[in-house]
Amino acid sequence: MRQCSTRSGAFLDEAIRGHHPDCRATASRVRELVAGHPTLLLVAEALLAAHAALGEQLSKLEKRVRSLARDDRRVRRLMSAPGVGAVVALTFVAAIDDPARFRSSKGDAAGDARRDAQGEGGIGAQAGGCSAPDAGRRH
């Protein structure tokens, strides 16, 4: 989420400053540079508006994510692990909504989920064919 929004912001930044990484374009500086060029002014205003809207929405989203993380003790506990932020912790808590579904924390949770979805077979069960055919079992 954050990475996608950051990429969009970087794209808009690059479009505004014209591929010059050393240039720190501010809205007022961009307007100053395109003054007297109606077409460039139109494009620059659209890019500046998009950049401002993206920044505003990203701020609102980050505030909401922090609020959700702060209000859930499970999320706060997960965030105490190094490298686990609010988004990862919230995603994990949403995915594991009912821990009782898992028989053991030591088991293969993914395998358990596949077995539940497929019936009794699990990972080893495949439709059609057999791994070691013998003459007595052929159809």
Describe this structure in words.
With 139 residues, this protein is mostly helical. It has one domain. The protein is 61% helix and 0% strand. It has 6 helices and no strands. The chain has helices at 2-17, 27-34, 38-71, 73-79, 86-95, 109-118. Helix 2 runs antiparallel to helix 3. It starts with a helix and ends in a 21-residue tail after the last helix. The mean pLDDT is 76.
Give me some keywords for this one.
6 helices, 139 residues, mainly alpha
Uncertain ranges? none
How big is the Rg? 26 Å
Number of strands: 0
Question: Quick one: overall form?
Answer: rod-shaped
Number of discrete domains: 1
Which range does the strand content fall in? Answer: under 5%
| Nearest-integer average pLDDT | 76
- What distance separates the N and C termini? 52 Å
Largest sheet geometry: none
Total of helices: 6
One letter per element, helices H and strands E, the order comes to HHHHHH
Structural class: mainly alpha
Helix amount, in percent? 55-70%
